[in-house]
Amino acid sequence: QLQLVESGGGLVQPGGSLRLSCAASGFTLDYYAVGWFRQAPGKEREGVSCIGSSGGSTNYADSVKGRFTISRDSAKNTVYLQMNSLQTEDTAVYYCAAGLQAIAALCPYYAMNYWGKGTLVTVSS
Q1: Alpha-carbon torsion 32, 49, 86, 123, what sign?
Q2: Which residues contact 27 (CB under 8 A, 6 or more apart)?
Q3: What is the pLDDT of residue 54?
């Protein structure tokens, strides 16, 4: 089956780091733009970061610039989100999503074809 699975979430203290993984099964992630999204309690889903298909650019929400880094490992068919200097405001369920069409290049949620089920990140003392 075509599937994305997130992993790497957990509980960390403010200032800590986590690396989230988005592993694809059943399709080659290199051909897809991949975005990370998050939804905090009581808030709407928001885009966090995006990486274009292999060789493409990256972009970040203003709230995470300088702290988060998105990357891909083609050999592992996986996209990562390295999260440093985590803040309590980063607490959310984090989802990865992949989009194949050109309109997915900047990872608008409506253009993403496949979604993972999410991994919970909790930043708390």
Answers
A1: negative
A2: 2, 98, 114
A3: 76
